[in-house]
Amino acid sequence: MAKRIIITEPDEILRKVSREVTIFDTRLHTLLDDMKETLLSADGAGLAAPQVAVLKRVAIVMTDEIFLEMINPKIIEQSGEQTGAEGCLSVPGKSAQVTRPDEVTVKFLDRYGKKCKKKVKGFEARAVCHELDHLDGILYIDKCKNLVLDNDK
Ligand code: CO
Has this prediction a pTM greater than 0.85? Predict the structure, then answer.
């Protein structure tokens, strides 16, 4: 595994729409392993492939409760609403309140191409929505109300 460089706003790559994954080979596995190591060392809750300059529909979410490796993920059900503080490793030093669904069901493929489905709530639902947005070139700063510098808090 190797740590990769996380690109930051306003890098244009973050604004591109990522491509679907069709090949589930060691190259994909290396990407996933590298993303995990990168996320662990950055102390975040999730990371999407475009954040390490790879325009593939790949995202991981890691919290105390879950570890998800999602390939070609899609939200198939959502309900409720929550508003809470959000940050992003590609928008360092800032955070803001963002409204998201409170519960989502996401379907995706695992690293071997096997179909999976997972229902998540609360913080995990927020993290899944945030990471999936990255795959369409969307950042939370597009959706927030009051962006603040972390050191202003
Ligand atoms: Co992010």
Answer: yes
